[in-house]
Amino acid sequence: MLTREEDIDVHALRRQGWTISAIARHLGRDRKTIRAYLNGRQAGVRAPAGPDGFGPFIDYCRARLAEDPHLWAMTLFDEVTGLGYDRAYSTFTRQLRARDLRPACEPCAPAKAGRRR
Predict the structure, then answer these.
(1) How many CA atoms lie within 13 A of 89 on its CB side?
(2) What is the largest CA-CA distance in the chain?
(3) pLDDT category, 114, cuts 50, 70, 90?
(4) Is residue 65 within 8 Å of 102, Cβ to Cβ?
């Protein structure tokens, strides 16, 4: 990934007539990287690694956790795996936390208040 300054340099050098190979040598980067930035890739913006594997299961998880806020994540993981979820358990629990899908349980709140996060 190029820095913002390198991205500016790449475009400036190209406008001056430099070849992609010459720019790559000058900046110490691969030609394919330079070509990608000249073709519109933006500095500092990371492209998604792939499609969201958890997206189709959000509504199901939200509904199941609304029914039972104490449902174990492993039980829910087994259910969504049966429905076609193909990622790891650690990825599944990270998505549950990141999307804040587990509803708050008022009776459990005082017990959790002393915990560190």
Answers:
(1) 8
(2) 69
(3) low
(4) yes
- Answer yes or no: are the C-beta atoms of 74 and 93 closer than 8 Å: no
d(CA 10, CA 33): 10
Please state whether the predicted TM-score (pTM) of the whole model is above 0.85.
no
Q: Are 102 and 109 in contact (CB under 8 A)?
A: no
| Closest of 49, 54, 50, 51 to residue 83, by C-alpha | 54
* Contact status, residue 14 vs residue 23, Cβ threshold 8 Å: yes
Q: Report the candidate in 56, 48, 49, 52 with the shortest Cα–Cα distance to residue 81.
A: 56
Q: What is the DSSP string of 67-112?
A: H-TT--HHHHHHHHHHTT--S-HHHHHHHHHHTT-SPP-GGGHHHH
